[in-house]
Amino acid sequence: MRAALTALFTLAAGTAAAQPCGGDFNAFVDALKTEAVARGHDASATERFFASVRQDPDVIAADRRQGVFQRDFIDFSRRLISQNRIDNGQIMSERYDATFDRIEAEYGVPRGVLLAFWAFETDYGQVQGDFNTANALVTLAHDCRRPELFLPQVYAALELYERGDLDPATTTGAWAGEIGQVQMLPEDILTNGRDGDGDGRVDLKGSAEDALMSGGAMLADLGWRAGEPWLQEIVVPEGIDLTLTGLDHEMTVAEWEALGVRAREGQLGDGSLVASVLLPMGEGGPAFLAYPNFDVYFEWNQSLVYVTTAAYFATRLEGAPVYDAGNPRPGLSGEQMVELQEKLVARGHDVGDVDGILGEKTRAAVQAEQIRLGMPPDAWPTAELLARL
C-alpha cells in the first residue's frame, strides 16, 4: 500500500467550519457529502455514492491488528517467501513476459520488483480481499489514527465511481481500501491506472496486464530510477565501523568498497551510486546494501521488515541466492520492544509510534543508545540493551 501522507486532516463543512475525525459517524458522512459537492462533485452522484456507506468495525480491528510486523526479518521473510511463490513467480513471469518487457521499457521497473509485490499483496491476484472498499475508506477517514491518509482516498473513490470504475455497494478489496491485484489506493488509480491489455478500460481486479502496468507506472511516479539496483546482499568485513551502518547513513559504493564491503555474489553497483549498509538483525545476521531505489519501497509500505523482505524477494525472483542468515543475537519480543520504545522515548528519542515494531526511527534511537553505552552500535535491540536502559 502506498503510504505517502498528505497535510494534517481537516474537513471543510460548507466554507469555514471544520469537521474533525471521530464523533458521530452519520454526521461525519453528511459533512463528507457537503464537502464533496463543494469540491465540484455532482450532488446526485455524491448522494448515491454515500447512500450505502456503513462504518465497518472489522476494518478498525484489522488496522489495530498488525503484530506480524513485530517479527524479525528472518522470521518474516521465511513466512512470506515460499517455494510456491517462487515457482508461481516464474510461471507468471513467462505468462506475462511481453507485459513485463513493456513495463521495463516504459517505466524502468524490473519484473522481479513487480512480481514480488504481486505475490505478497494478493498471491498473484488470487486473494484480493473482501472488505467493502467505500466502507473501509470512510471508516478509516473517520477514525482518528490516520485520517490524513484516508480522507483524500474517499474523494478519489467518489471520482472513480463517477467514472464508472467503482461501485460503492459491491467493489471490494483490502481492509485499508486498496483495490486490485497489486492493491492500489483510489488516488493512485486515478493518477497511474493504465490499460495494459488494450480493452479500453482500467480493470485492476480482473486484468493482470492492467494491474502490472499500473503498478509499474506508480513506482515510476514515486521516483524509481531505471537501470539501477535496489537491494543487494553483501559481506561486511569484521571490524567495520558500525556507526556508519543504517539507512540514515549513506556513502558511495566506491567508499563502501574501500572499507572492504563486497557483494556476496557478482559485483556491487556503480561506484558513484550512494548506498546504505542495512543490517536488519545486527552485525551477526544478513547484510544488504540499500540503493536509492530502496527508498521508493517506503512509498508503497512503511514497514521496514515488509520493505526489506519485498526488496529481497525481488532479487530472488531475479536470480539472487538465498541470503546468508548468519548467527544473529536473539532479539526482543513484541512486549519487550514496546518496553524498549517507552524507555527510548523517556530518554528523548523519537521512535514514532510505540507499537513494538522495529522501524527505522527505533533503530536510529537504539544505535544512539548503543554508542552511549559502549555497545556494538549495530541498531539491533537485544535483552542486554533493554536491561542496561
From TrEMBL:
Residues 25-314 form the Transglycosylase SLT domain. It holds the Pfam family SLT_2. Transmembrane segments: none annotated. GO terms for biological process: peptidoglycan catabolic process. Residues 1-18 form the signal peptide. Residues 333-389 form the Peptidoglycan binding-like domain. Keywords: Signal. GO terms for molecular function: peptidoglycan lytic transglycosylase activity. NCBIfam families: MltB_2 (TIGR02283). This is Lytic murein transglycosylase. It comes from Oceanicola granulosus (strain ATCC BAA-861 / DSM 15982 / KCTC 12143 / HTCC2516).
